[in-house]
């Protein structure tokens, strides 16, 4: 089964860490940036019959991580040249709450980094296209379960790379911010059963 694996890397869901593990290194195809519909991208790269897997994360934690990732990024960052336009916009917001409030009106929402996670997981008819969907909050367990499913060894450590912040995201949200992100990412909140906790 490992000869036809597709890893769908949703931004800020431990993908950079997972990329350094044998399970993702065994994947012959990967999707990270894409435009349009995920099922069209899967067809385009010839991976319709592949075993597809990916991970999701609490939408509030992910959004805070995205903000910090781009806010702290400078010209020396390896991905700066691809993201300079995003960094320029995010750095206008010294206050995370201001970013939350203005986000729905920003063009950033159309960038793949900020897509709702559901856009990576479900097709246009609402059918889940991933054969395995893990949760970052239970990463070690999910990786072990996925390894067992695929018949791979799970005796490895998951490195922690590309960490944008160690701060507890819950400390940075106001009641209004919580509601705004819940509304904007409502599909993720409902489909993946997340709460602000």
UniProtKB/TrEMBL annotation:
Domain of life (superkingdom): Bacteria
InterPro entries assigned: P-loop_NTPase, Sulfotransferase
Keyword Acetylation (UniProt): no
Coiled-coil spans in chain: none
GO terms for MF: sulfotransferase activity
Entry keyword set: Transferase
GO CC annotations, alphabetized: membrane
Record-given protein name: Putative Sulfotransferase family
Organism, as annotated: Alteromonas macleodii (Pseudoalteromonas macleodii)
Organism ancestry: Bacteria, Pseudomonadati, Pseudomonadota, Gammaproteobacteria, Alteromonadales
């Amino acid at each position: 089964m490992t000869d036809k694996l597709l890893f769908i890397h949703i931004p800020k869901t431990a993908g950079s860490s997972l990329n350094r593990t044998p399970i993702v290194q065994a994947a012959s195809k990967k999707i990270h940036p894409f435009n349009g519909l995920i099922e069209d991208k899967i067809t385009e790269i010839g991976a319709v019959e592949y075993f597809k897997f990916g991970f999701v994360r609490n939408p509030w934690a992910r959004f805070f991580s995205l903000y910090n990732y781009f806010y702290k990024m400078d010209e020396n960052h390896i991905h700066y040249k691809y993201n300079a336009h995003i960094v320029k916009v995010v750095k206008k917001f010294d206050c995370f709450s201001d970013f939350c409030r203005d986000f729905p009106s920003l063009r950033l929402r159309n960038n793949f980094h900020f897509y709702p996670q559901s856009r990576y997981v479900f097709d246009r008819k609402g059918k889940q296209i991933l054969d395995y969907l893990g949760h970052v909050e239970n990463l070690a367990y999910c990786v072990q379960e996925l390894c067992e499913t695929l018949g791979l060894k799970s005796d490895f450590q998951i490195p922690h790379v590309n960490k944008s912040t160690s701060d507890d995201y819950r400390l940075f949200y106001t009641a209004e911010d919580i509601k705004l992100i819940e509304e904007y990412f409502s599909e993720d909140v409902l489909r993946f059963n997340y709460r602000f906790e």
